[in-house]
Amino acid sequence: MKEKILLYNPRPNPHLRPVDLPLSLLCISRFLDKDGYNIKIVSENLYDDHFDVIREAAKESMILGVSSMTGYQIYDGLKASRIVKEANKDIKVVWGGWHPSLYPQQVLENPYIDIVIKGQGERAFYDVVKRTEEVAPYENILGVHWKDNGRIYSNQDRMLEPLNEMPPIPYHLVDTEKCLIETEFGNRTINYVSSYGCPFRCGFCCEQTVNKRRWVGLDARKVVDDLERLEKVYKVNGVSMYDSNFFVDMKRAKGILSGMLERGLTIRLGNVDGRTKQLADADKEIWELLRATRCYSILTGAESGNQEALEIIKKDINVEDNIRFAKRCHEYGIKVVFSTLVGLPIPGKTYDELAKKTGEQIDATIKMFDELLSYDSRHRGLMFIYCPYPGTPMYQNAVELGFKEPKSLEEWSNYTLYEKHTPWVTKKQVLLVSMISSYIFMFLDSDTITWIGERIKSRLKRGLFLIVFKFYRILARLRWGYKYFGIPIDYRLFQFAKRRNKSI
Prior knowledge:
Layout: E1 4-8, H1 23-28, H2 30-34, E2 38-42, H3 50-58, E3 61-67, H4 72-87, E4 92-96, H5 98-102, H6 104-108, E5 115-117, H7 122-134, E6 144-148, E7 151-154, E8 181-183, E9 186-192, E10 195-197, H8 207-210, E11 215-217, H9 220-232, E12 238-241, H10 250-262, E13 268-270, E14 272-273, H11 276-280, H12 284-292, E15 297-303, H13 307-313, H14 319-331, E16 335-342, H15 351-375, E17 380-385, H16 395-400, H17 409-412, H18 427-444, H19 448-455, H20 459-482, H21 489-498
Parallel strand pairs: 1-2, 1-3, 3-4, 4-5, 9-12, 12-13, 14-15, 15-16, 16-17
Antiparallel strand pairs: 5-6, 6-7, 8-9, 10-11
Helix pairs in contact: 3-4, 9-10, 10-12, 14-15, 18-20
């Protein structure tokens, strides 16, 4: 048996335990598992005493790998990193994921972190493990940054590597039964990714920094192989797609959907990511395939109901594209989750002018949501306050307008989507956006009652939930119908309950 590799999936939210598959950790385990390494993956949904498990496993491990997005995962990942260093002073701590890929040198300034992998991690992490095992330097491993005796070293970036030659995802490394969740499209749903990257130029998105607007996708046949294995071996009936843009290669997308039909798969896809204009303009064949495979929902960055905002973002769509897309989804029975953002950094504007622009963006997006909802009550709107991310085209605009960028890894751990990070967005606007996205639309969405109800196993608690839910649905509909969002007592009570019940 080869050296033990310890991997940790940090909690993404201070109030919610992770419930799904630690997919990023399984992906970076592909080559190591094939090579016979002893890999232990730890997450809160896999072990109740997960930090104790980490502490004990670290004593016999050569490396701890941590995957982290910006926000609370940093806080939780640092806690795990400190624990393993205390348990084993010789262990190497390697961080990867979105945030380390954006700020590799700042991440390495933390005393508990030795190595950072920027971008795609499968091959790079394998090479790091090999060099560590051989006690060899990390020079020339693309995408790897490391420190030695306090000095930080950086290799060149790694370009996205084709996925077709990689080993399949090693699901056997975790107890998949603990990673299955109830969703609208399957009571045994698991997360899956079939491609990396996105070629488009949205100004707020860090894909441009991390993957340089490149995209690689697993061959359609191999994707169908994976889906068939999930259905027949692991009895999965729903798949939440984690691709940044599933429909970049439309021929490939058609091949996946037609392959599912040819093999008689009943597994259902949900939250498939796509662009409104691309799909609104797509031919009838892809839509017929989506309907035939019973695709449940598409997640799309509609971004705004305000055309000026779309142009600032460089979204390369019109508001009308969002409407046309919603109509086609209604025609083919597909639910849509529309993601939007407000509070954009517009150069040359005062704070008062930016606050006014933010209000216009909110009002226009609410108006767009009204029309989208008129096609299907299942459609759901998400609204976020713009959060500046380093390396994105709009980031420097935000800094020049007064955004106080975090100066350390620890400071970035407090960075969340719903909080106020820019000085021109008012507290009232932050409250309104959070209320609409996480409260109003949760109850307007006619499917919510189904998937949350299935997660509550106690019959008594489920009965109480149904009573409370129906009451709150009435309040949410009244608020939305009259566009009245003042005196948010009901929202505050909802937030209180949400922090104490992971099902919500």
